Amino acid sequence: MANIDEILKKYSGKLSGDIKEFNASNVSKEYDQFKDDMMPQLSHFEKWAKAFGKIMRVHLSEKDSKVMEKNLATAHIDLTPSDVVSYSFFGAFMSFFVGVLIFLAAFFISGNVDFISFTFGPAGLFLFLTFIASIFVFYYIYTSPQRMAKLWKLKASSQMVPCILYVVVYMKHTSNLERAIAFAAQHLQQPLSLDLKKIFWDVETGKFSTIKESLDNYLKTWEEDALEFVEAFHLIESSLYEPSDARRIQTLEKSLQVILDGVYEKTMSFSRTVRSPLTNLYMLGIVLPTLGLALLPLASTLLQGMIKNYHVFILFNLIVPFLVFYLANKILLERPGGYGESDIVELNPDYPIYKSRKPYLIAGLICLPLLILGLSPFLFQSVWFVETFNLQPDYSLADFGLDTMEGILIFDFKNSVSGSSIKTQQDLISARGNIAGPFGVGALLLSLLVPFSFALFFAISFSMRTKKLIKSRDFTKQLEQEFTNSLFQLGNRLGDGMPAEIAFSRVAESTKGQRTSDFFKIVNQNLHQAGMSLDKSIFDSNRGAIIYYPSQLISTSMRILLESVKKGLLVAAEALMSISQYIKNINKVESRLRDLLAEVVSDMKSNMTFLAPLLSGIVIGLTAMIAFILNRLKGVFDTMEQGELLGGFDGGMINNLFNIVQMIPPYYLQIAIGIYLVQVVFILTKVLVTIDSGDDKLKVTNSISSNLKASMFLYLIVTTIAIIVLSVLAAVALMGLG
């Protein structure tokens, strides 16, 4: 007995130690690996948040905690609200700490002994922006669960109609809810497939006793965002209790109609409400900043140089794009779910091209010379460069045969102390450290190559990455449209009592000249020449017909055929004819939805690719004209003594008031607004594609490429013409003063 007690004591202690080490919240390694493969971006967020959550525990209010827990559960993120808040605090602290280190390093490297003057200069602005950035980092991380939950729902909602379709088609021949959901989970893509698999996971882990209980619990998460999806599934559940087969099928068909009608109504409402936010986004994000740009040259001269070049870049390339991004993100959060692209680019055989870095290298080699040429005016302000190549720092238009414009310089850099132009190597040496500009029209025209090189880089690289994938997708869509009719024919053949092996041969003959004909021919050849089974003829990894037609619709339709043919030819015929009719109905609804949004999307696209670059180009031309006029007037006023009158005005006073050296050069203004247009194309293209097609990364990337080409080529042409025409008009108008 003593030996038994010793054994129990020994192993009970060991068992208690194992229990302490066991965490009930842990799931299997298989589930962790599955989720990492499906949603790797969430895994990185989880790892960082868990790491910082162990360092510090922060408790939220009960209300905020419940909201965040709901978002975390929706996005399938295995974190607590405390982990997210801790990550937010540490992220903000690290951002501000790095900024302070850079600030102090700049102070000691510069050797500036006056800490106060150093702080209230550009370094102080940097420190202030670092503080603002740290606040944004906190806000961004803190709201990440909400954003990820919304993106998850947006992506999942685009697969709702196919999900109901697969469940309905399966249950029409096999009234088994569990197997129907499993069939849909197998053939849908993530993230909705992950949700459906989680329904089974909750049953297997004992959280719920039946699939129906687990499904009802999952549907609660969609009650606020997609009530039609919930109602459709409840109708599917109720079909299990119908006494007759006819009533059961009628209920199943009603469920599909419910979700189609619900999606259509929500999209109609969204198309009416989204117009005003998009208009506000365009006015506040493009029109007002661009018009304000025209005032900057005069404002900078009147304020005696208080507005610097870097202020323009901070305003146009940091602050305004952030505001546009924020407004755009609010619009995306209002988009209803239930429609959009549901395919995944990773399934395409050409996906390695999309992930390749080679397009970036090729685009970089093409665009780098343009970027260097755009920055070339600064090479002429290098003493080493002009001495090595025996060049002058600047040249006048007279040097190129335009004798009537002898005083107009190409680059027109100036000595900020004396205000005189830098024309010779001696001028350049004497003005070292006090160079302002460039103010010349030639430099401004060259500056167009800077934003154009950035736009061309992304346009070329994105086009190379997506060209084959987009062609493959377009071909697949056309193929699927034809395949709907072919499915109906195949169903008719099966309904006539013809075996599936013979039916494929007959359909191949009747669809000659169509894209789907080859699919049926390959299946027929595999059946009769290679002696393969129907399953192998379609899905064999080496010779299967599906290899040459990588379509989710075709694959699922054939899976339904193989599953239903086990129940008999009539069941298989009815299943194929039903799915053919359902797909036609879905396509009609999706076509009507796109028609509802077409006007909104096309208006915004025309604003982005036509009106925005047109308006920006004209404003840059006006800026160049203002700078040209002030530059020419400076030459006139420099010849006058202080107090000497010209047309009743004190020439010296006017010269001091409109000192061109204190003005922001149009060169920098053009670069800032050109880069801003590139940023706007990125942001607005994402908005328009998401409104039209849901979360579709492939379409976003391809659309950015085409929109950049359209908008930046127009901007380049309009700006070039505006600069030349308005500068010539100004030169002609001031010719009498020269």
**Sheet with most strands: strand arrangement:** 1-2
Please, what is the oligomeric state? single chain
Helices and strands: which structural class?
mainly alpha
Radius of gyration: 34 Å
| Shape label | elongated
Largest sheet properties = 2 strands, antiparallel
**Are there runs of 5+ residues with pLDDT below 50, and where?**
15-27, 641-645
Average residue-wise pLDDT: 78
Strand composition percent: under 5%
Number of strands: 4
Distance between the termini: 119 Å
Structural summary, described in words:
The protein is an all-alpha fold. The chain contains 31 helices and 4 strands. The protein has helices spanning 2-21, 29-38, 40-55, 62-74, 81-110, 115-119, 122-142, 144-157, 160-173, 177-187, 192-204, 211-219, 227-239, 245-273, 275-293, 296-302, 309-333, 351-355, 358-374, 383-388, 425-430, 441-447, 449-495, 500-510, 515-528, 534-539, 552-564, 569-638, 651-657, 666-693, 697-733, and strands spanning 414-415, 435-436, 645-646, 649-650. It has a two-stranded antiparallel ribbon with strand order 1-2. β3 (645-646) and β4 (649-650) form a beta hairpin. α9 packs parallel to α13. The longest helix has 70 residues, at 569-638. The protein is elongated. Residues 15-27 and 641-645 have low confidence and may be disordered.
